[in-house]
Predict the 3D structure of the following.
Amino acid sequence: MWSRSLFSICMVLLLSSQPVAAADVLMPVNKDFGEGDLMINGYGKGYIYRWDVLLIDGYVHLCGVGTFPDGSTAHAMKGQLRKAKLTYRGKVILKDVSFFGREKKSTDLSKANAVCRSTGVVPVKNGGDFVLDWAGGNIRF
């Protein structure tokens, strides 16, 4: 009886928590995170997000969290997330940002937790730009 109750509690906790891959890290959003959105022509904002590039354990990590303001556009926007790329010094170092944390549209993203994924890249000393490249354009950070 006890094991069945424990199993039920664990399943509820597991199913209600946001899935995070074993290599991913949760990081609270702070003032250094950039803001962005993806627009749909003639419709408005299809995705609103916060993102940052962080050095964790010596490796470059892309961190992000976002929300879909309107559920009817979520499917199309998820496709855009899968097509996104992070480039560093002109080279693609990570494809697909669909791992970004997801929040309800009523959530203040500045108080959310972002999911961070390692790129496996160690930054060089003289730096370089990180560019988050979306299928319809890009933003510099």
About this structure: The longest strand covers residues 44-56. The chain has one domain: 21-140.
